[in-house]
Amino acid sequence: NNDVYLEAQIENTAATAMILERVELEPSPNYTVTSIHWGDAEELSGMYLKPRDIRQFLFCLTPKDAPSSVYKDMTNIGKLDMSWRTSMGERGRLQTSPLQRIAPAHGDVRLSVENLPATVPVRKPFTIDCKLYNCCERSLDLQLELQNTSTSLVFCSISGVSLGQVPPNGSVSFSVEMLPISIGFQSISGIRIVDSFLKKTYDHDDIAQVFVM
């Protein structure tokens, strides 16, 4: 999915101990935020930090509904806001400038694995559900081609199937069937998406892994 994870490390660089009272991420209007933490609420509301102590915080930002072309430009994720109190009772607060994420380089199309079993039995076919997003500003006439790049995991589905025309910011779902030949972790590769208009091929290798038992 398009979730963004932000890890923040807060260090007490002062010469005295302090109580870290609040660490929050104020998301930009394009995102909603969830704080991922361990420990009880009392500990989180007043963390004791000795000089040079470090605490880690993790936030998950979920983009609000937006077309793929717009999401690529949603680089501003928000501001980190924190407040503390020293052992002498002095209070402090710091808010960062807007934090930026690295925009994903999807190109014209983006492939997402929607459903895949974690483990599969050897020599028994299994199905992968995928979704293809058109991230460019023109319609794409797409065709699915499958290349067996490994002898450990081979395609059972027919290659050369038409996925039809996908409008800008649109998507199309498809499924492929594979047969595992060897046990162990196997990487799924060999999915090729062909743009019939421009005769351009988009290679999708190492899109996921499956454990064959």
Commentary on this structure:
By secondary structure, the chain is mainly beta. The protein is built from two helices and 19 strands. The chain folds into two domains: 4-100, Sandwich (Immunoglobulin-like), CATH 2.60.40; 109-212, Immunoglobulin-like (Sandwich). The chain has helices at residues 41-45, 68-71, and strands at residues 4-11, 18-27, 31-36, 47-49, 54-63, 76-86, 91-95, 99-100, 109-115, 119-120, 126-134, 140-146, 153-155, 161-166, 171-180, 184-188, 191-195, 200-204, 208-212. A hairpin with a 4-residue loop joins strand 6 (76-86) and strand 7. The radius of gyration is 24 Å and the shape is elongated.
Give me a quick take on this structure.
By secondary structure, the chain is mainly beta. Helices cover 4% and strands 56% of the residues.
Strand portion, in percent?
A: over 45%
Return the string of H and E elements: EEEHEEHEEEEEEEEEEEEEE
The CATH C-level class name of the largest domain = Mainly Beta
Structural class: mainly beta
GO cellular component, one term: TRAPPIII protein complex
Domain Trafficking protein particle complex subunit 13 middle: 2-104
Organism: Teladorsagia circumcincta (Brown stomach worm)
Protein name: Trafficking protein particle complex subunit 13
